[in-house]
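Model it.
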Amino acid sequence: MTIDLLAIGLTTLDIALHPVARMPDVDTGVLVPTIRLSPAGTAAGTATVAARLGLRAAIASSVGDDLQGVAVRDGLRRAGVDTTLLATSARCPTSTTVLPVRDDGQRGTLHMVGASMMEPLADGATAAAATARGVHWGGVGSPGLAGQGEPLLRAARAAGAFVTCDLISPQPGAADELARLLPHVDLFMPSLAEVRVLTGGDDLPAAAAHFMALGARACLFKMGRDGAVLFAPEGTIAAPAFAIAPVDTTTCGDSFCAGYHAARLRGFDAPACLRFASAVAARVAMGVGTLGALGSFDETLDFARATAVAA
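Modeled.
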């Protein structure tokens, strides 16, 4: 079957604790109502949400030969994600993140770098990308993927795939890597925080002009409660966030990316894609873990139609 979306890059096991008002003192404990394990990251989180929305989603990444890896692989399979290109590393653990989530949905992170950052892609990833309808690159800054992104994305675009790129916590060298990747990217999708790190400011038109000068066809900046804005040669489109009470905002960015792909593959125009992606992120934020309170594509569309946007 044709893959609708191949997500490549960071794959973690997220362990979300909610709500956490304070961390326990030594030799004491705190009861937590919810602890949830989820496949997550710019690859696994995006693929999981895409599958919930009805896409034939696949992942190209790595996990370790450990119990975290078993949980990630099983979670992806249960979600309906094709794990053929999810390799198992004998030398690296599974990337794992512990997330104490506060009442307002915000959280810090405790992260262990693992296989998805350190191991190369499995054989067949480039061939799969060249047959996919959409490719999402979430491996910027991963030492194990160094040098693999440019030829893979070039092959994907040449074959007609819609290529997107996202990143997390950009490290030194990310700008140079993006300069190599963006000529093969249709839509660059960073968060506002990542734009600030990459450009040193929050002048979004200037940032979009910079990334598009590097080769990106368009830029979509995710701004959390302030919504999102798309810069393209045809013009600029802004979309407000929905008025919700967030529970866990961890996977909002990755779910937004998946939502945009899902809407685009349904034939939505750019403003409708933005609105639907915002609705996906909102539904995810209304629950704990990667999928949060997200339902099907049609359920999310009904939510978007019935829910007010933030003032």
